[in-house]
Each structure stands twice: as C-alpha cells, then as structure tokens.
Design a protein that fits this description.
Nitrilase/N-carbamoyl-D-aminoacid amidohydrolase, 6-stranded mixed β-sheet
C-alpha cells in the first residue's frame, strides 16, 4: 500500500482550504497513493467567531471529499472538520474516511480535548466549544485495519494500545500541532506510538501561520513499526508518500513479540 500525507496551511477561507486540499489529493493520486491523509481541521483554522457553520457527516464537506475520492479512485482520510455537535455551543472534531467509490466508511470523533490553564501564560479550553467523542474506531481501508485518532489524542498511549489490540496495523494521526510543542514532542510521540504498538503511523499535519497568532509545526511523516521515519514532509504545503509493507509488521511482531508478551 502506498500512503500519502497531505500537508496544508488552512486559514479562514473554507473554500480556499478545500481547493488546496483537492489539489493535494490530485497530486497524491498521481503519485500512485492508495490512501491519502489530510490534517486536522482541513475546513477552517482561525478565530472561533468566524468559524463556518458546523454541519453533519452528510453535509457539503462530506460531499466534497466523497466526490474527490470517487473521481480520483483512491481512499481519502479527510483529516477532520467541524461537525455539528450535541448542542449549539459545541461541535465535534471529526474524521471521515471515504472509499474509492466515494462511500463514507468510517467516522471518528476526537476523544481527548486540550484543556490547560497556566496562570499568566496559557488559557485554552478546547472543551468549551468541542464535545469529546466516546468511541475508538478501527476502519477497514483497502482491507487493512486502520486505527483513527486526532492530534492531542497522540499524548494518550492507552488509546493506541486499544487500537492495536483491536487489530490496527496502521495508525492515522491528522493534526495541527503548535510550533512550540511540535518541535520537541511531535516526532518523539509518533515514533513511540509506532514502536510500542508495532504499527505503521501515518501523520498529516498543518503547517504555517493562522489567526489568532498561532503557528503549526508541520513535519508530516510516515513511520514504520520499528520506529524508523520512512518519509517526512519539508516545511511547506505539499504531498509526501511512502510505501507500507504489511509483511514487515508481522516480521517485527514475530521477532520482538512485545504485544503478545503484554501482561495488562
């Protein structure tokens, strides 16, 4: 399987963000990708007051990427978008996966929300506007069990262990990691999730500046189950591909059977 990570710099113009995403998917298809992965919040990154009206999983966002998957003949993981939530004050941060026929085959709502209060430095409460998901999801992508997660989920290894126990061979991480955490933690955490679960990790990140005064780290990458970085995106909008060797997963799990040896 050939996978592609599509690195974007989404901002306040939803139509422009989707147009760039479509162009990157076309490049991924031209490069022979079977699966293309977009980053977190493909639809919009910007001030909350200007965010587009949230919609359901059968809305325009889903129709757009269903059409792209069907027309390009590839699997599309549409990063995430602002899904209508349980009430008017909250959305869900939701990933959608589409087959080459344009069918919606999996939906995952981000479980872990970033809430932090550091007096005089940081005040950010994601839970004020986003409702948490409740279900882990392993999707069937071209016959390969694929575990779904979003951004801050990356810091919670128990989620990925559950996905691995449930059969995942690939772990997907669309993200919008900030620069100050990304430069020290992004690659370390991604490689750790790959090593401890003996899975491929496919991580697509946002890159660059967006309002209000934030910068995303980028460095989208594909990591093998030994923890080796197979491909890493440069610091620009673009597409990076790598080939996933499913036999390598079984080889590593046989030679170093840490999943089989676990006691808890």
């Amino acid at each position: 399987m050939r996978v592609a990570v599509c690195q974007l710099n989404s901002r306040e113009r939803r139509d422009e963000n989707l147009a760039v995403a479509r162009g990157l998917l076309e490049r991924a298809a031209a490069a022979g990708a079977d699966l293309a992965v977009l980053p977190e919040y493909v639809d919009y990154l910007g001030p909350g007051r200007d965010a587009p009206k949230p919609e359901g999983v059968d809305g325009e966002f889903a129709e757009f990427f269903a059409g792209a998957a069907r027309e390009l003949g590839i699997w599309v993981h549409a990063g995430s978008f602002h899904e209508a939530g349980p009430d008017e004050a909250h959305t869900y941060n939701t990933s959608l996966v589409f087959s080459p026929e344009g069918e919606l085959t999996a939906t995952y709502r981000k479980i872990h929300l970033y809430d932090v209060e550091i007096a005089g430095r940081v005040s950010y409460q994601e839970s004020r506007t986003v409702a948490p998901g409740e279900k882990t999801v392993v999707a069937d992508v071209a016959g390969v069990p694929t575990g779904l997660s979003i951004c801050y989920d990356l810091r919670f290894p128990e989620l990925y262990r559950r996905l691995a126990i449930d059969g995942a061979r690939i772990l997907v991480v669309p993200a919008a990691f900030m620069m100050h955490t990304g430069r020290d933690h992004w690659e370390v955490l991604l490689r750790a999730r790959a090593i401890e679960n003996q899975c491929y990790v496919v991580a697509a990140g946002q890159i660059g500046d967006h309002e209000p005064g934030r910068t995303c780290f980028g460095r989208s990458m594909v990591i093998d189950p030994w923890g080796t970085v197979l491909a890493q995106a440069p610091d620009t909008v673009g597409v990076t591909t790598a080939d996933v060797d499913l036999d390598r997963i079984e080889h590593i799990r046989t030679e170093l059977p840490s999943l089989a040896n676990r006691r808890l």
